[in-house]
Amino acid sequence: VVDGAQISANTGVVLDPVMKTKVTNLGRPAEFLLLQGRPIGAPVYQMGPFVMNTPEELQQAVMDYRRTQFGGWPWSSPSHVHAGTEGRFAIHADGTIERRDMQAVV
Global pTM? Predict the structure, then answer.
């Protein structure tokens, strides 16, 4: 209950930051996230995890992500496969390359 009004789960509430607010739990487990901020005074466009100021910037961000995964896709092709001659291998986070003999893998 927020200031006498029962609030259902997964609901946003706008509060006046200079007014006192009473929050009451009705005996059930509850969690809430309290944030405060000021409007940035700029247009905001959002799609998935991307937030930009214009539709064009948003479209460019999505295209960049699809093309490079923001720098995380080091291969020349967007294909999720390697040449058949590569065999079985893994590239670890530290850059170490581990190769496996196909006969040894059952």
Answer: 0.42
Q: What are the percentages of helix, strand and coil residues in the chain, rounded to 5?
A: 15, 15, 70
C-alpha closest to that of 6 among 26, 21, 20 = 26
CA distances from 15 to 9, 20, 40, 47 (A): 17, 9, 18, 26
| pLDDT tens, position by position, 82-98 | 777 878 888 899 999 99
Q: Which residues in the chain show pLDDT less than 50?
A: 106
- Tokens 């509430």 locate to 13
At 60, give phi and psi (nearest 5°): -65, -40
Best CA proximity match to 47, nearest among 35, 33, 65: 65
Tokens of 103: 């006969």
For 65, other C-beta atoms within 10 Å of its C-beta total 15
